[in-house]
Amino acid sequence: MILTHGVGGRQDLPLPLEYVIGGAVLALLVSFGLLVLTTRRAAEGVTPHSPRGWPLPRLGRIVDSPAWTALWRVVGLLIFAFFVLVAFAGADNANNPIFGMTYVWLWVGLVPFSLLFGPVFKAISPARTIVAGLSWLRGAGGPPLRLPERLGYWPAAFMLLAFAWLELVYPENNYLGPVRLWLALYLAAMILGGVLFGEEFLERTDPFEVYSSLTAKLSVWGRTQAGNLVLRTPLGNLDTLRPAPGMVAVVSVLFGTIVYDSYRESPTWLRFIQNPELSGNQAYLISNVALVAFPLLVAAFYCVGTMLTGVGDVPRRALPGELAPSLVPIIVGYVVAHYLSYFWESGLATLRNASDPFGNGGDWFGTADMPVSYFFAFHATLLAVIKVAAVVIGHVLGVWSAHIRALQVLPKQHLVTGQLPLLVTMVGFTVGGLYLLFAA
């Protein structure tokens, strides 16, 4: 039994070994270079500060206008209506666009769209629109309940893991019924929680909104404390992300499930999971255990590395949360490296299928006869270069962010030695990611 993506697995060739070694060496050299540079900045008295950005008053008035908000809420509802249409009236086969819309456009597409345009899912979320409408009908007054602060992002971490289970492990993830049921339960939970606890529930619990908002911290679009739209550097924007309970769990689940997805395509895993001595139930159980184990291993490696970092006034147990945002660039870089060709090919196939949602020869959007481009399949060297570049760039941004954040808590006598465990942790993630891309 081969467990694959709901719309088919990745079929990229593994990275050439020389690319992996080159990327790993480059990551190591850049890491030490950034360590020296940030330490020198701190020694010279250059301290990190809250980035302000460049104000965009005219664009801000448009983006913050009720008409602009309403426009994207309508777009979100139209997309939601199309989801419902193909979920209940579409054929239960691989050509139903709901699979590509869910696994490719929604899940993988959140990353590039959030990088380009900011927290896009927050703008088009059907759950937010429905909750806003129900709150308007309810009248004045806030939500009846208050979400406990200590809960933080923990619900989103479990929801992200649940979606990864549906996509990567559940053997019937390419059947309409399970996908329809998962999406229905997700929407019902978001609407009920939003009505009871308000928009804060969606900000901390909705897996797609949390994922999109985290990724959007690497975009150039930011907000001041007063809520005004500004243009910032990606790292400046990332520096505004404050730690919260469950943040470590979220980044560990995101990174760990991607690592699992890459590892399960390696020959070692395939030989093991397809062993004739294993029954289908045993293989399924092992896959479930592995899906949970990888995020736990990522979290353990990360927490040990950060807690070994020398500290000043910050307790060691608080360091993983303080430094967790630094993993976001590494996650994004690995998403690009792991899913680029998958997103390109399956995304185009989904666009073609969406034009004929019922499989009866229709052409709603004029794309039913559009050929799927296999550009990256014919340009393997270019794909390998992009993969290594994405991982290394993500590593550079992550290491720089981690060093800057570490300087805020390290005493001066430990500016270098205190960051070494953190440096080893970041290099370990990048080298491990490159190795898996080589082995897959």
Automatic annotation (TrEMBL):
<protein>
    <recommendedName>
        <fullName>Fenitrothion hydrolase</fullName>
    </recommendedName>
</protein>
<feature type="transmembrane region" description="Helical">
    <location>
        <begin position="420"/>
        <end position="438"/>
    </location>
</feature>
<feature type="transmembrane region" description="Helical">
    <location>
        <begin position="151"/>
        <end position="169"/>
    </location>
</feature>
<feature type="transmembrane region" description="Helical">
    <location>
        <begin position="70"/>
        <end position="91"/>
    </location>
</feature>
<feature type="transmembrane region" description="Helical">
    <location>
        <begin position="374"/>
        <end position="400"/>
    </location>
</feature>
<feature type="transmembrane region" description="Helical">
    <location>
        <begin position="19"/>
        <end position="37"/>
    </location>
</feature>
<keyword id="KW-0812">Transmembrane</keyword>
<keyword id="KW-1133">Transmembrane helix</keyword>
<keyword id="KW-0472">Membrane</keyword>
<feature type="transmembrane region" description="Helical">
    <location>
        <begin position="323"/>
        <end position="344"/>
    </location>
</feature>
<feature type="transmembrane region" description="Helical">
    <location>
        <begin position="103"/>
        <end position="121"/>
    </location>
</feature>
<feature type="transmembrane region" description="Helical">
    <location>
        <begin position="283"/>
        <end position="311"/>
    </location>
</feature>
<feature type="transmembrane region" description="Helical">
    <location>
        <begin position="181"/>
        <end position="198"/>
    </location>
</feature>
